[in-house]
Amino acid sequence: xxxxxxLKYKSTRLKYCIPVLFGxxxxxxxxxxxxxKYDSTQVLxxxxxxxxEVMYSTSGNVVFQxxxxxxxxxxxxxxxxxxxxxxxxxxxxxxxxVTTKLTSNYAIDSTYANxxxxxxxxxxxxxxGETLNTEKLLWNKKTEQITSDVFxxxxxxxxxxxxxxxxxxQDFTEYRILEPSGIINIDND
Length: 189
Description:
The chain contains 2 helices and 11 strands; from the N terminus they run ααβββββββββββ. The chain folds into 2 domains: 4-30; 47-185, lipopolysaccharide transport protein A fold. It has helices spanning 4-27, 32-37; strands spanning 47-58, 61-74, 80-83, 87-92, 98-104, 106-110, 115-126, 131-140, 145-155, 159-169, 175-185.
């Protein structure tokens, strides 16, 4: 036989647990927009690096230097790096002299494919001071070529050349506009 004290204790405990249990079960609600923020299919970076500087070399020679305010690194079979706040790439010759400088507001470096795509306000300057302006550029590091399939403008010491599409070596010293649309001669007198 149970004592009267044990029954009072159990009924008191039950009296407080039931409202707490109902409060926990029925007070939770999720806004659909909040749930979508935490979608499990969303791809998140493996690493986030701020103020990054990467030196890439082959056979002991530095080939290029990449600087970015922030770099998001994604792993997996098709790993890539994304630079959402801009990038600056300096390409060096064998004497460690910068021959070409590329800047853009956004870039994605597909490390598995050995290619980098630069977008938004892409500017390339070669050692002669010739400047390429475009909104999209693909740099194939394996073939050492840069290409574009959108509007390009090249400014030299005496001309401005415009057109659509471009093929060039990575130093931007030998280039060809695929569909030229105009040449403006600059008078330096």
